[in-house]
Amino acid sequence: KAGVTQTPRYLIKTRGQQVTLSCSPISGHRSVSWYQQTPGQGLQFLFEYFSETQRNKGNFPGRFSGRQFSNSRSEMNVSTLELGDSALYLCASSFKDSHVNTQYFGPGTRLTVL
Amino acid sequence: GESVGLHLPTLSVQEGDNSIINCAYSNSASDYFIWYKQESGKGPQFIIDIRSNMDKRQGQRVTVLLNKTVKHLSLQIAATQPGDSAVYFCAGNNAGNMLTFGGGTRLMVKP
């Protein structure tokens, strides 16, 4: 079974631009979560989608948004990019909506904001 | 805010020795814990998980211990190999699919 895939793998943007990242979960998985990883803050939860609905949201500004499609694929968008948004953005998928289930991560999208 | 694990220390071990990686968590409501391994340039890879109604769980060459009294997790790796070199994260979950991660521990295996 194919793992979680994320596109693009690398992205360079300038301040003020916006960016859209894509995540395809493992086949059959309906939950998709997004995390931001930086050297300073570590891994931080952004938001989670299940059956096209955002169920949980982390402590990030409204510039960070996402959505999920009927095929469970998800996108996240960051508007008005800031230098501090440079990070590895990770997507994770899981099968159930229970919190007692394993999340499997993709390779991430490395975003650099200049 | 809530956190799981507070440090990014480095653990250096000799190939063939056992490794023990520790993690402290602060959210008493967390009832499901996972250990992930992250190699350079890759996403976190699932290693082993444990529910709060358990004290110990064993996998292939790995064992996770949970001490709820002191809110402490540990990951034991037997016969550590060079391929085990990576950053290891513990994570806790108490609601939804919202993992709270520790800061991570870098494991370096000396040949």
Describe this structure in words.
The complex is a heterodimer of chains A (114) and B (111). In chain A, a hairpin with a 2-residue loop joins strand 5 and strand 6. The model of chain A has no long low-confidence stretch (mean pLDDT 93). In chain A, the strands form two sheets. In chain A, strands 2, 4, 5, 6, 9, 10 and 11 form a seven-stranded mixed beta sheet that branches. Helices cover 0% and strands 53% of the residues of chain A. Chain A is globular. Chain A is mainly β and 114 residues long. Chain B is mainly β and 111 residues long. Chain B is built from no helices and ten strands. In chain B, the strands form two sheets. In chain B, strands 1, 3, 4, 8, 9 and 10 form a six-stranded mixed beta sheet that branches. In chain B, strands 2-7-6-5 form a four-stranded antiparallel beta sheet, with no helix packed on it.
How are the SSEs placed, and which strands pair?
The complex is a heterodimer of chains A (114) and B (111).
Chain A: E1 5-7, E2 10-13, E3 19-24, E4 31-38, E5 42-50, E6 53-57, E7 64-68, E8 74-78, E9 87-94, E10 104-105, E11 109-113
Parallel strand pairs in A: 2-11
Antiparallel strand pairs in A: 1-3, 3-8, 4-5, 4-9, 5-6, 7-8, 9-10, 9-11
Chain B: E1 10-14, E2 19-24, E3 32-38, E4 45-51, E5 56-58, E6 62-67, E7 72-77, E8 86-93, E9 100-101, E10 105-110
Largest sheet geometry of chain A: 7 strands, mixed
Our estimate of the beta-strand percent of chain A is over 45%
Overall strand count of chain B: 10
What structural category do the secondary elements of chain A indicate?
mainly beta
How confident is the prediction overall: mean pLDDT of chain A? Answer: 93
How would you characterize the largest beta sheet of chain B?
A: 6 strands, mixed
Q: What are the segments of chain A in which pLDDT stays under 50 over at least 5 consecutive residues?
A: none
Distance between the termini of chain A: 37 Å
| Oligomeric state of shown chains | heterodimer
Report the largest inter-chain contact. Answer: A-B, 28 and 28 residues
Shape type of chain B: globular
Number of strands of chain A: 11
Rg measurement of chain A, Å: 13 Å
Helix content of chain A: under 10%
The SSE order of chain B reads EEEEEEEEEE
Number of helices of chain B: 0
What class would the helix/strand composition of chain B place it in?
A: mainly beta
N-to-C series of helices and strands of chain A: EEEEEEEEEEE
